[in-house]
Amino acid sequence: PLPPPRGDLQVEPLMVTAPNSHVPILRGVNFALEAGEVLAVVGPSAAGKTTLARALVGLWPSAAGKVRLDGVDVNTWNKAELGPFLGYLPQGVELFEGSVAENIARFGEVDMGRVQGAAETVGLHEFIQSLPQGYDTPVGPSGTRLSGGQRQRVGLARALYGDPVLVVLDEPNSSLDEEGDAALAGAIAGASARGATVVVITHRTSILGGAHKMLVLRDGQQQAFGPRDEVLAALQQAAQAAPPAGGLMARPAGA
To answer: What angle do CA 122, 128, 132 make, to 5 degrees?
Structure first.
């Protein structure tokens, strides 16, 4: 077994294709993050953002290049060992038939202290307590007994369960209201403060304020990477120098 990772993330010139395809979706993406840093990933639709999220947690293998956590390729790491150290919120949140607690605990052994802690982190504890059976309340098939925003916050609590060292969130606030947005920002700040590396794919400006670094993708390629303020300034200069073309290169936080 490998030692527990700290959260240092290295992405070496990465090429990723969809399963059973030879057409690259990502090409040449290359960056590094230190444990505790927050990265905001932005870009227009079909830029490859979701593909990057899947590659970072080892769901989709790389056709070239590597994703390394503490120097170890995530695709060669034993998944049963690595899984507890990763937190992932996909763009389409899936819950499974079972209780709220079971979903947050990833259907492993339910540690109620950790389950409640994760729920409190995302501002969901009071809502769960108001349910008929509290944390034991069934969510229904695919979480149908919860609203879209509630499902997203349960998914976020699941991603943060057990204090993972790498957290990847794909559009985590797409279904959140203002209160949920604030809880999300607090959860990201808290994860960073305890030393977790956080990658957030977003179209909303509310997330950018808590980011240390920023990555801009377009057409599957890396357009910019660096400290958030430097990247934003470069994007604004580029937008002023040319007629607006729409999308993230013209409006860094545009939806």
So the answer is: 170
